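Quick one:
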Amino acid sequence: MSINSALLAGVSGLTANSAALAAISQNISNVNTVGYKRTSAEFQTVINAQSQGAGYSAGGVLATARHFTSQNGQLQRTTSNTDLGISGQGFFVVTQKPENLQITDARLFTRAGAFRVDELGYLKNTAGLYLQGWPVNSEGNIITDPSDLSRLSTINVGSVGGTAEATTRVQLNANLQSSQAISAAATAAGQVPAGAGAYDPATNSMAMWDPTTGTGVRPDFELTMPVSDSKGGQRTVAVSFLKSTTPNQWYAEVRAVPASDVVTGAPLANGQIRTGIVAFTQDGRIDDVAMAALGAQALFPDVADARLTFGASNAGAPAGGAVNWAPGLGINEQELTFDLAAAAGGLTQFDSASVVQAVLTNGTAFGNLSEVAIDDNGFVSAIFDNGVTRRIAQIALATFPSPDSLTSITGNTYRVSKNSGTFNLKAAGSGGAGLIGASQLEASTVDLSAEFTGLITTQRAYSASSKIITTADEMLAELISIKR
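Output:
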């Protein structure tokens, strides 16, 4: 009977609008949930098979949920550098436990990036889920894989200890006064044969100079350089200069301070690391041609390849002319490259006072972790208080052919479904994946004005459906009363 179908159609209207109300209620209650994606109930008609000449049978309406998972919310600035938002497509990969993950353990996907460092140093969001990424291997590289979730690991920033970097490069910006008076020791050294008290790097050197006893040769000018060793310890290397009787040439000695920091092979002594002559052009710059012509007599025969090499503390006795760090220091081998002819300065000989403008080195002393930073491409870096930055991992983003078809679960997360398609793991900013914004969170995509408007229309539609039932009931009552 058509009246019965009208009753059933009214019931389906009540059911469908109840589902719509539930979706609106869910949206409104999650208006401040980070990364929440709104849901709506969409209606579709239900048509019953009709028999010709038998009247019309109402089918009613059916409500299905539609998830707007691919819709991006606005990123909002926060004060925590571990708050993460995604600008564009992609989901964070998260797990329910941080350690001992097996292939069978569930990997979930979320846009809720309110991560905090837990008591074990792992990044965990407000739903208690742990952030996954590609770790840095033993060689300092990050190997990504687009399809293997087992290559991901939980990102841990609490296990990062202190660090130090050995000095590898030194730039000298200093001037030697061209009108410097020639000392008696240099004058004697220029005589043939050498006079009494002549400067000699092996027997009467600047490294032997002792102002209290007057032994050795007093340098005309000396500068010192701080050097960080492989453990972050601070060493000092001094460079002493003595003007020669040959124009535009200076005797030079590089030595360790104190001398006990190194062990040297003959003829080096008293902490000497290298000795030789430094030559300048007539316009006061390093003369690389003259240095090359001096050969073994030059401090560095090849100015473009000026370097000092220190053997490790456990390297044994050094060969002739070689230098090792002292055994008691227990430090690794090290190589220092000197920049003596920098375009902006370098080592010069002008007729002004001998002075050090700058000594620039790149090594650092031991430093402790001061903060964790995450960049747009998802690289998680540890920043130490000595200025060193070291990468820990790279956050992986998962993209799907149909993100709206992912299955929603508790905790504002999603699970792969048959209709969503398989995931693809990508680095942020590559292959269609969005960029990661640190100190930002993605706001809910709920629009309160639209939801409240939907409440009104849903309430009216529910009332209208109830009227169908009331009217059909009255018509049935009229039918039954005919017999009376």
